[in-house]
Design a protein that fits this description.
Number of helices of chain A: 11
Radius of gyration of chain A: 20 Å
Number of helices of chain B: 6
Number of strands of chain B: 4
Largest sheet of chain B: 2 strands, antiparallel
Largest sheet of chain A: none
Oligomer: heterodimer
Strand order of the largest sheet of chain B: 3-4
Helix content of chain A: 55-70%
Number of strands of chain A: 2
Distance between the termini of chain B: 125 Å
Distance between the termini of chain A: 66 Å
Order of helices and strands of chain A: HHHHHEHHHHHHE
Shape of chain B: elongated
Strand content of chain B: 5-15%
Radius of gyration of chain B: 43 Å
Amino acid sequence: MTAISLPLLSSVSSPLPAESAFPAAALAGKSGAREMDPQAQSRNEDEQLVARAQTGDSAAFDALVVKHSARLYALVYNMTSNHDDTDDLLQDVWAKAYRSIGGFRGKSQFYTWLHSVAANTTLNFLKRRGRRWMMSLDDVDNGILQDKEFVELQSTSTPVRESDLAEMQQKINEAMMKLTPDHRAVVTMFDIQGMPHADIAKVLGIGEGTVRSRLFYAHKQLQAWLSEFAPVHSNSHSA
Amino acid sequence: MENQPLNESQLQALLRLKRHETPPPGYFENLLDRVHRRQREEMLRRPAWQIALERIRAFFAPLQMDWRHAGSMAALLVAGVFAIRIAIPDRAADASQLAVRTASGSAALAQNGPMLTLQPPSVQPLAPQENHRVQRDPSAPVRFIIDAQPVSYERHETTPIRF
């Protein structure tokens, strides 16, 4: 098997499709010499790969798998908090995408369509599974120690400073799992994946207003459940 | 010391830390293999008609034909086949009609003819037809027909059968 370099989940921070480390320009037959907006370039690259995949080019479909798997994994994992379920669902998603890529007409961006397949597959799974769930969390990578936001949280929040990473991860995931699947999907896409409201609305097939209201409600609940991580201020002068 | 409520930006910063949860090393490298395996499994599980349909689609795909065009072409083809069938008389049907006529003629000949075919003397006809019944003298010897050559006890002595 050929080793393929893949973008880490930590690199998924832009609100639009991640610019993959995969040499997709070569796959798409582009020289890459022309200066182009990275998002537009990614979109263009997707269009070319999809067009080739629709004619039965399996290498083009493989390139799409390699390019988008990290983001899809993050979406599904953060909705299920279970690595094994995520693995199964991710394969389901790619199998569905393979079956129906011929019917993709390009009315929306490919990554929106793909996220829609992934989100709906995961939501159906979560609704079918009901309340029977078990966490099987991935390890936190070492990059978190250099993360500016984590360093800042450590400096302001005593619980973050005192609790170990695994404990903090456990609590955040437990709070996420208390949300309904619909609210969790919105929080995952907006807060963790950084997708804009409009794209989330397209992915879930709902209005932007619904996205905003779900986010508002979910944030209120999470703020209550994760209040222990709030910055602690000394009140010694008033005591 | 007192806890302030977690504000919006602090909550978002906390949630963004989940980006650092990553699958085991090598997970994505093996994913493509698993996706391929899954595709093969699905291919094997598919019914034959789906595979046939996909092959037909793949065959016509290079023509870049719209489904409406394909449908109208198929309708034209069917109409053409019907037109040809109407224009040219059906030889098979004629042949079968001829065969029926020949058979009925032979049957009539067998019934009306002077000779009775392979009927032993003790067996009575099942459905006697009064109009066309062969009137045979009961005292006359029974005659059989083999290979269209009438044979009888009388003739047996003169023309012996050779095998």
